[in-house]
Amino acid sequence: MENKIEISDLQVHYGDKSALNGVSFDVHPNEILGIIGPAQSGKTTLLKVINRTLEFTPEATVQGSVKLDGVDIDTIGDVYELRRRIGMVLPLPVGLPLSIYDNVAFAPRTAGLRTKSELDEIVERCLQQAALWDEVKDRLDSLGTKLSGGQQQRLTIARALSHQPEVLCLDEFSIAIDPVTTMRIEDVLKTLQTEMTILLVTNLVQQAKRLANRTAFFLNGDLVEIDTTDVIFSENPANQATYDYVNGTFG
Amino acid sequence: MNTDIQASPETMFTETEIGKHKRRIENVMRIFFLVMTSLMIIPLLLIVGYLLYKALPVLSLEFLFTNPKDNMRAGGLWAPFLGTIYLVVVSLLVAAPIGVFAAVYLNEYARESWFTRITNLAVVNLAGVPSIVHALFGVGAFVLFAGLGESILAASLTLAIMTLPVIIASTTEALKAVPMAFREACWNLGATRWQTIRRIVIPNSISGILTGVILQVSRAAGETAPIMFTGAVFYKAIVEGNLFAYNITEQCMALSLHLFTISTQVPDVTEGIPYGTAVVLVGSVLLVNAVSIVLRIYVRTRKKW
Predict the structure, then answer these.
(1) pTM of the predicted structure, to 2 decimals
(2) In this structure, which topology does domain B78-301 adopt according to CATH?
(3) Which of A51, A83, A92 has its CB closest to that of B181?
C-alpha cells in the first residue's frame, strides 16, 4: 500500500525554540489518523508544515521532508495547488465575512472556476457533506459570520471540502462547539473517510478513540508512539507515557 | 454557615463604610472627567459661535462666488476658495493612492525586516515633522529641483508629502482591524495574498481607509506654511463661477493664506470679511468631516462580523 504522506525527520524551530524535534511517520490513504497530546506538543505546527502555511510565520524554520504521494512538498512549485489538495479546519470556526454561498464558493473561485452551474453544484454538495445544507439551503445569501458557532464550524468544513482535498486536516475542530454538533461532524468524518485521508488533531482523547484507525501520541515535540488505536488505548501500549496520557493520569 | 457574617434582613442592604467611600470617590471621579470633557467642548463652541456672530453681516452665496475686490478690502472668496479645493484635491490624488498602497504592502506583504522597520520609523517621524519644514523641502524639491516653479502642482505635492505618513498610519489601522483569522482561512483555501486582499481585506477595511483619507482633507485645507512658498499667492483674480479657472502649473490663492493676509497685511478690510473667511474654512472642513462620520455610521450598520 502506497503511503499518502511520508514524514521523515521533521524538525521545526520557532527562533531558538524547538517545536518538533525530528519526527518521522507515515499516513496511510483513507485512514483517520488521530493525533493526540497535550498543549505545546507540536500538533498544530505539524499541520501547518503539511500545507506550508507555516511559511507565514516569519521566525519558523523547517528541516526534514514531507512527501505527499511520494512528492516532496517543498518541490511543489504551485504552493496554492498544494493547499487546495489539503483541506484545513482550524480550532475556532471562521465564517468569512461573505454570504454562505460565497464562503463555500471561495476556494473554487480563487482556483479560477466561474461557471455558475458548477459552483452551485459544489456549494450544495459540500454543504450536504458537512451536514449543514438543510439548515441553510433557504438563506444561502445571508452572511456566514451570522451563523451560530456550530454552524460556522460546519461551514468551515464545507469550505475545506470545496476544493476537493485529498487530505483533510482538522485541528481540534470541536473545541468551540456543542457535543451534539460534534457528534454530527464525527459521523460526517466517518463517511468522508471513503473519499479522503483524514488527520484529526484532538484534545479529546475519547474522540480519537471513537474515530481514528491509528493514533499518534505527541509530547513536547516528540512522536512518542504511533500505532493502531486499539493498541494505543489498550492496557499495554509501547510507552508508559502514552498509557498515562490516554488514561488521564497526566495531561 | 458562619453566623457572624450572616446577613439579617435589616443589615443586608445597608451600606458599609467602605461602600460609602467607594461611591463617593466614584462620583468625584465621574464629575472630574466630565469637567475635563466640557473644557474641551467650550472653546470649540465659543470659537464657532463668535466667528458666526461676527461673520453674519457678510455671509451670503455672493460672498462665496465673487473674487476679492478693492485690494482685498471688500468682495468675496471665490479665488481663494477654489484655490484651496484645487490644492486639496490634487494633493489627495497624489497622496491617497501612494499612501494606501504603501500601507497595504507594509501590512499585508512585508515581512519583519530592517527595511520595514526603517520604513515604519520613517512614517512615524515624518508625521511629526513641522509643516514649515515640509514647506522648505517643497521649495527645494518641487519648486527648484523639479522645476515646477511656484505652482498649484508644487504646493499640492508638498501637501501630499505632508499627509502621506498620516494616510499610511490610518490605513494600517484599518487593515489591522480585519481579523488575522480571515486571512489564515483564505490562505488555507489556496488563495494568494492578492486574492485574500481583494476579496476579504479591502472590502472589510475600505470604510476605515476612506475615513482616514477624508480626515486628511481638513489637514491639507487648513495648512498655510507648506503652500505659501510653493504655490499660494497673495492675490490673483480668476473667472468667477468657473470651476476650471485655475491651471495647475500656475499659482493660486488659498483660504488659509488669504485669511492670514487680510487679517495682518491689509489695512482697512471690511470688518466681517476675515470672520467670513474663517467660517468658510472651518465650515468646509466640518462638512468634509461630516461625510466621513456618515460613512462610518453607514458601515457600522452593515458590519459583517
Answers:
(1) 0.83
(2) MetI-like fold (1.10.3720)
(3) A92
